[in-house]
Amino acid sequence: MKHPAIRKLKKAFLSLALGQDVKNKKLKVTPELISFIDRFRSNYVSCDLIRIGGRGDGGYLAPDALQDVKYCFSPGVGRVSNFENELSEEYGIKCFLADASVDSLPIENKNFHFLKKFLGNNTFGNVITLSDWIDQSIGKDNAPRLLQMDIEGAEYDVLTYESVETIGSFSVVIVEFHGLENLFDRYFLRMVATIFEKFYKNFKIAHVHPNNCRGIFQIDGIGVPPVMEVTFVRQDLISKCVNQSTVSLPHILDQKNIGHHPDVVMPEIWWKPVNIKTDA
To answer: What's the rounded Cα separation, in Å, for the pair 96 and 101?
Structure first.
């Protein structure tokens, strides 16, 4: 999904600042980062998963428990809508899509409803908040719903702004998080940790997949994928898809986002118990 120039400048600035810190050896693995990763791992559960959206970029792993889901909210359209099309064709799910960078959807479908706006932390001009979008689209209907969000860094604006209640109104949330190499910066880490704590109030992590558009960013043996897809499942749905298997990555259904790039494997510290010592 394309975004206004200001978001591109902010992203470039963060990357430049991080790169300068690494060059000057100002960054290190902190107890706070290890705590964030520990929290991530402790909230990870093994679930029965299915792949929605086909191979490659645009396909995601979701819990095998979508039979009752009635709505999908999917900001960030780009050039493909295979994920939403499969939800519509296989489950009859009504899909709401939003993106101000395109004029129309790449696929026509009777269950698609398009809004030419970006998702953000306010409702003004060509930007709308997630909570306002939900209210505008389905009103007070509390039917089970799914959120799939790939909006190139704007997810932080959205998830910082929205309440635990709004996020928790979804049965399944799939988010592609960007710029995670900045987790070695304590201020960025605090923001992301706060967002994840919102999720942990109502959700468990069912899957994580690093996007292979970039490699693994590593400092002092701790690896962080700059871009990763995380599937959250609300706790009341866990019983329908949880299994007794040990979490193991990559999942058999995982596919490379970019076919001609080398694959990226999620570092074990995020999903497999390991002992890490850090300087206080």
So the answer is: 16
Indicate the helix (H) or strand (E) that contains 176.
strand 172-177
- Name residues whose C-beta falls within 8 Å of residue 139's C-beta, 6 or more positions apart in sequence: none
8 A C-beta contact, residue 149 and residue 74: yes
232 vs 223: CA distance, rounded Å: 21
135: helix, strand or coil: helix
Name which of 54-58, 88-92, 152-156 the model is least confident about: 54-58
DSSP 181: G
Average pLDDT taken over every residue of the chain = 90
End-to-end CA distance of the chain: 39
- Residue holding tokens 């791992």? 41
Cα torsion for 80, 122, 152, 23, to the nearest 10°? Answer: 180
In 3D space, the residue among 160, 146, 164 whose CA is nearest the CA of residue 206 turns out to be 146
For residue 249, pLDDT over 50 is answered with yes
Q: pLDDT for 226-237, tens place per residue? A: 999 999 999 999
Q: Tell whether pTM > 0.85.
A: yes
Mean pLDDT across 45-71:
95
CATH architecture classification, 5-270 = 3-Layer(aba) Sandwich (3.40)
- Whole-angstrom distance, CA of residue 65 vs CA of residue 239: 10
Q: Where are the domains of the chain?
A: 5-270
pLDDT of residue 28: 86
Measured in residues, the chain has a length of 280
Average pLDDT on 92-118 reads: 95
Q: How far is CA 39 from the centre of its chain?
A: 17
